[in-house]
């Protein structure tokens, strides 16, 4: 991912927080010479060796997985809030732009066994059911329902490289920066307001 130095996020804790809060990603690889992508939850975890990895699962019917044996290199893309920024908000003539936050994770994928896949599924469900009034637990599902779990396989991604971008108008002076935040907040667009919030965190 091309990222000018000004917009690079090289703070490990900031990246971890982003990945945990924006874990619905895009898994990309090459299968039979063709690029493939699947939109799935991909969770940041720590393995038994204490190394950070990504975990997720795919349907066994998904042909994307056929490429993992011939080439285990994958890319996981995670996107956060984004918003159009009008140059009419500046005190000088310039071009419009787009502010956004994104993380690309490169690594090697491996398929895990069925027991590990179920454990991954339990952690995933527990995470997203935490605030439910009547939380579902994998342990409480019937044998019949759990047969559906046989239709998936879990995977782990050994992380080789992380590229993180926070493009938040860092190239603007304080006056224009504050005005961009103000204009974004006026839009009533959730994405724009989220970008305004992130900008406010970066410069007081």
From TrEMBL:
UniProt keyword Protease, yes or no: yes
BP terms from Gene Ontology: proteolysis
Any one Gene Ontology molecular-function term assigned to this protein's record: peptidase activity
Pfam families (UniProt xref): FMN_bind_2 (PF04299)
Alphabetic keyword roster: Hydrolase, Protease
Domain of life: Bacteria
Keyword Transmembrane helix annotated: no
Protein name, UniProt field: Protease
Protein species of origin: Flavobacterium hibernum
Lineage: Bacteria, Pseudomonadati, Bacteroidota, Flavobacteriia, Flavobacteriales
